[in-house]
Amino acid sequence: MNNSNGIRDRKVKKVIEYLANALYPLAPEERLPGFRTIMKETGTGRRTVGHALDHLVADGLIKVDPKKGIFRIKPAEKTDEIRLLHWSLASLEEGSFISILFENLLKKAADSGRKLTIENAGNRSPEEIADELIKHGISNCILSGAMNSDFGEFLQRKMNVCMELLPRHSANKVIALRDSPEMTVLQFNYLRNLGYSRIGYIHFCGDDISLYPVQVMRLLDYYRLMAENHLYINPDWVFHCTARYTDLEEGFQKIISSVPMPQVLIVPGSALKYLYNLCRKYKIKIGRDIAIFSCDNSNEKFNPEVTMITNDPKNIAENCWQMFNALSHGEEIKSCYTKLQIRIGQTVQSIKK
Prior knowledge:
The protein is 39% helix and 18% strand. By secondary structure, the protein is of the alpha/beta class. The chain has three domains: 3-72, Winged helix-like DNA-binding domain superfamily/Winged helix DNA-binding domain (Arc Repressor Mutant, subunit A), CATH 1.10.10; 81-178 and 313-331, Rossmann fold (3-Layer(aba) Sandwich), CATH 3.40.50; 183-311, 3-Layer(aba) Sandwich (Rossmann fold). Helix 1 crosses helix 3, helix 4 packs across helix 11 and helix 5 (126-135) runs parallel beside helix 6 (150-158). The chain is elongated. The N and C termini lie far apart (82 Å). The model has no long low-confidence stretch (mean pLDDT 88).
C-alpha cells in the first residue's frame, strides 16, 4: 500500500468512527448528519465520506437516500446466533471447570441447530458491547461471570434474550443461574457430623478482593457458623491468599505452628497442588495430621484423593440451556442456584470416638 492510500484509509476510518458514534443513540429510520456536516466534523472531503458510507451500507447499518438523507436501519436479526460473553478469571485450558462448562454449552447450542460464539468481554462498557451485538444482528446473549449488574441490566433492554450465568454480583435485575450460597453451610455440617471442631479456612481473594464477592460471602459464613456453634477460632487458622499463592507458605507455617493446630482446613481447589507440596515439605500427612476439604474441583489427581464440594459443570450447562430456551420462548422463569455435591475422598475422615 502506498502512502497516499494509507492516508485515505485512515481518513475513511475516522469518518466511520464518527458515524458509528452518531449511529448508536439513533433508533432505526432516524436520520444521521448530512454530507456537509460529516465533512465539516471530520475535516474530510466528499469522496472520503462517500467511501465511509459505502462501508456502513455494506455492513447493513445505514441506507442513503440522495433526496432525503442518511438513515439508520435495523440489521437483519440473526435469531439462531447467541453470544456468550465472559469475564472469567479462571483458566480456560482443556479440562478446567470453565472450559468443560463452555464446551457443554457449545454442544447444547449445536445440537439445537444454533450457533454459540464465546467472547471475552474484556474492559468494554455495556454500551460498547451492545453496539457490537446490534451491529452484527445478535439479539441473544448469555453473560458469564459479570462483575457488576450494569451489563445485564443494560443488555436486557437491548436484547431479545439476556440471562446471566454465575455472576459475581448480588443484584437481581436479570434472570440468572447463580452459585449456590450454601457451600460453607454444607461443608460445616459435614465436618461437624464427622466430629471436627477445630476448623481452619484458607480464603482465596486474588489480587483484588472486590472481584470475588462469592468467596467473601463463604468466608463470612464460616465466621458466622463458628460463632453460632461456640467454636474457637485462632486467627492463625484463617489465611487470605493472593492469586499466585506466593504467600501461601507463610500462612501455612502459621497454621501448622499454632497450638492447637486445626484438625481440618477448608481450602480453594486452586490451592491444592501448593498445599500438597507444602505438606510434603513440612512432613504433614494429609488426612492424618490435618484434613483437607476443597471448595472446588481440580483437574489434577492427588494422593490421597481429595474430599471436595463442587458444582458439576455439565449439570450447570444443562440448567443454563434450559433456562435460556425458556426465556427464548417467552416463558416466565425465576433465577435459581446451582446444585452442590460432596465428593468423598481420603482427606477427610471421621474422628468421632
